[in-house]
Specification:
The protein contains 1 helix and 6 strands; from the N terminus they run ββββββα. The protein is mainly beta. Strands 1, 2, 3, 4, 5 and 6 form a 6-stranded antiparallel sheet that branches. β3 and β4 form a beta hairpin. The longest helix has 11 residues. The radius of gyration is 14 Å and the shape is globular.
């Protein structure tokens, strides 16, 4: 699962699974928008009316940047969309 973050020119920050990236667009799946929530950040579906499992091709002309998410954010995202449940990487002492 290739998890990335992007910032739209509208100011939205989105975490997603990258399906394909070309010179014209980025094809995304399972996109979630970051919602500031006081001292933390929550996530909500980025496009609530798109059919489940459908991919979206985002033209690069609307994208400010694409970056790697923080490791703990990527891990939580993967747990949300993975068909297999995996334990956290943190060790209990």
């Amino acid at each position: 699962m290739d998890v990335k973050c992007l910032r739209m020119n509208t100011g939205e920050e989105v975490i997603f699974t990258c399906i394909e990236e070309t010179e014209e667009y980025i094809e995304v799946e399972n996109a979630l928008a970051a919602i500031p929530n006081g001292q933390s950040i929550g996530f909500a579906p980025w496009s609530t009316i798109v059919k489940n499992g459908e991919t979206i091709k985002v033209p690069k002309s609307y994208v400010v940047y694409v970056a790697e998410p923080q490791p703990e954010v990527a891990e939580n995202y993967q747990k949300l969309f993975s068909k297999i449940s995996t334990p956290s990487k943190k060790l209990i002492l």
